[in-house]
Structures are given as structure tokens and as C-alpha cells.
Amino acid sequence: MDWFLLAMVDVVAYSISNILQRVLMKDQKSDAVAYAIVFQLLCGLLIGIAALSRGFVMPPIAQLPVNFIIMTLLFGFSMVFTFKALKIVQASEMTIISSTATLWTIVAALLFLGESLDINKLVGILLMLGGIAIVFWRKEGLKINKGFIYALLASFFFGLAVANDAFILRQAELFSYYTIGFLLPGLFILALNLKSLPEIKKLLLSKSLPKMVISAIFYSIAAVAMLMAFQQGGNISQLAPITKFSIILTVLMAAVFLGEKDNLKRKTIAAIMAIIGVFLIK
């Protein structure tokens, strides 16, 4: 399949997963850390089944120990901050803030992967970031709360992790790598938060588990589609912004299914800016 079509699969699957994650976290009693742990382990198991069916190949952990440590830390913290943010901010707001991950991915790609940045890509990125300002700007200034900070941190860690992925995947089989790429961060966060075990048990026995499983399925599809797009010839500094087309889709889905219609005009303008940015970057 063409890398651009794979990127579009990522967009749709990621947007659906976003909506389901927000549904899960709207319950104020939900434990963000427990959800992050279970979510990552579920994704690892789901992709692991596909990896076994294709012939699991152990990723080059011994050859690239530093990169795997970086991967574990970045994806682990990114997922925790994602679920923490979704307890506070709307799904539409979260997905708009997530476009900042593009900036960090491209900076890392420029520094470590030797990729180039032309004027079209730069303008596209600026348009996306401008969209964030439009959504969160108020008369008193930029609207910054704890959820906004969590979302920015999630995007920062995720953006760097994507660039690190691109380096590892030069030597790793995709499905096998992403099995480990979900399991290691999940186990790492669990090791840091053993006190979350009672909440994890409660989640596994709750009515929320089916929604969590469905969200994990779509997120897994999105993750694999993006990495397959990279292996099919997509440039990482192109793929990262293009997949942010999920911004407009999530905004629209959130308005329809979650009733997130406040500031819809601003969100629509931001989404249009994101679309222009996508085409400039492509």
C-alpha cells in the first residue's frame, strides 16, 4: 500500500481512538496512570498477536540499548500525560495541542536523521501551531491550565519518540518492534507505580474495559500504519505533520459524538489551517 494511504489509515484510526479515550477519562474517578498502563499493555498484546502470525523477530535491543531505553521512557511518559490531559481538556483541544509533537519530531529528525526542512514545510508547521493559538487564546491571554501543560508534555515526549522510532526501524521488523514498543513502556510505568495495581484490577473488571480494548485496537492500527508508511518510503518530517490531519477529524467527531461544540468556530479555523499545513508539507 502507498505510504500516503497508510498515513490516512493512521489518521482515521487515531481519531476514533482519541474519542474513545476521552469517553473513558470523562469519569473523574478514572485513574490516568492505571489506564495508561493497561492501554499500552493491551496495544502490545494486540500487535504481538500480529507479530507472532508473521514470525516474531526480536528487535535489536542489545545493539541499540540507548535507543530502546529512550523509547521506553518517552512513550511511557507520553501515554501517562495523554491520559492525565484527557481528564481535563476536551478531545478536540487535546488533538489540536498534539500537533506540537510535529515540531519536536522535525527538530529531532533534522539533528539526528539528517533530514531537510524547506520553506513549504516550515510554513505548514507554523500554520498548525497558529491553529493552537487561535483555539486557546482568550482576551486575558493564552488559556493555560494543568490539562494544557499535560497535553504539551505528552506531545513533546511523543514527538521525540517518533524520531527515535525512525532510527530503530532501520534495523527492526515493524510488528515485532512495536510489540516491544508498547510492552516495555507499559511495564516501566507499572514498575514506577505499583500502587496503581488495585486500580488496574478494578479497571479490568469494570464496564469500561470493552471501550478500552476497542480504543487500543484502533490505536494499534494507527501506530502500525504510520510505521509501515515510513518503511514504504514516507519521510518522517512529512509523515509526522500529515498524520496530524486527524486534528480536523477528531474535532468534527468530538462535536458530533461528545457535544464539544464550544468555540467550534475557532476549532474549525484551526482545522482549516491544519489542512493547509498538511498539503504544504506533503
Task: Characterise the protein shown here.
- Helix content is 77%, strand content 1%.
- It is mainly α.
- It has a two-stranded antiparallel ribbon with strand order 1-2.
- The mean pLDDT is 86.
Mean residue pLDDT: 86
Question: How helical, in percent, are the residues?
Answer: over 70%
Question: In total, how many beta strands?
Answer: 2
Class by alpha and beta content: mainly alpha
Element pattern in H and E: HHHHHHEEHHHHHHH
The end-to-end distance, rounded to whole angstroms, is: 17 Å
Q: Radius of gyration, rounded?
A: 18 Å
What fraction of the residues are assigned to beta strands by DSSP?
under 5%
> What about the largest sheet?
2 strands, antiparallel
* Apparent shape: globular
Low-pLDDT stretches are none
**Major sheet strand order:** 1-2
Question: Treating each run of at least 4 consecutive H or I residues as one helix, how many helices?
Answer: 13
Concise description?
The chain is an all-alpha fold and 282 residues long. The protein contains 13 helices and two strands; from the N terminus they run H-H-H-H-H-H-E-E-H-H-H-H-H-H-H. The mean pLDDT is 86.
